[in-house]
Amino acid sequence: MATPKPGPVQIASRNPIPLSSSQETQVRELYYKRVRGYCADEIRDFASCALNRTFSATWVCRQQRLAMNNCMISHASQQEQDAAREEWFATRDERRKEREVKEAKRKEQEKFHRAWWGMPPLPEDEDTSAATGEKR
After folding, report:
1. pTM above 0.70, yes or no
2. What's the Cα-to-Cα distance from 128 to each of 12, 100, 109, 122, 123, rounded to whole Å?
């Protein structure tokens, strides 16, 4: 009698929800911002040293560059990426509300623009006209 083969091992993922490419980019930018925040002093020191220098910054600012790189490498960890992802999920509702406010403002401006120029108003719900097959 054949023994059943064990299925794939389920590993508890710290980040179970897959994100789209643009969402992953937002998480990555948040991650970079957090790491740069930790190393702001080192980055500032290197930038002030490299100011008004061209290729001589390579050896003149070597200590500052190494300090900046070491700081960024020490803070660039998987835990920091997880923290950035958690922060992105925590602020998701705020971003949604901002988009809704922006969309409402855009619609109000478009309504004003159409009234100002004497154009006919748009139908309120564009989705229903597309679903019923009506043309503008």
Report:
1. no
2. 43, 20, 22, 12, 9
CB within 8 Å of 89: residues ≥ 6 apart: 17
DSSP annotation of 20 reads -
How many CA within 13 A on the CB side of residue 50? 17
27-51 as b/e: b if 16+ CB within 10 A: beebbeebbeeebeebbebbeebbe
Q: What is the mean pLDDT of each run of 10 residues along the chain (136 residues)?
A: 55 66 92 95 95 91 95 93 90 91 94 89 62 50
> What are the distances in angstroms from CA 132 to CA 91, 121, 122, 125?
37, 19, 16, 12
Structure tokens at 91: 């602020």
Identify the CA nearest to 34 among candidates 69, 83, 89, 70.
Answer: 83
Q: Tokens for 53?
A: 């220098």
Residue type at 42? E
Q: Do 64 and 42 meet the contact criterion of CB atoms below 8 Å apart?
A: yes
Residues in the chain: 136
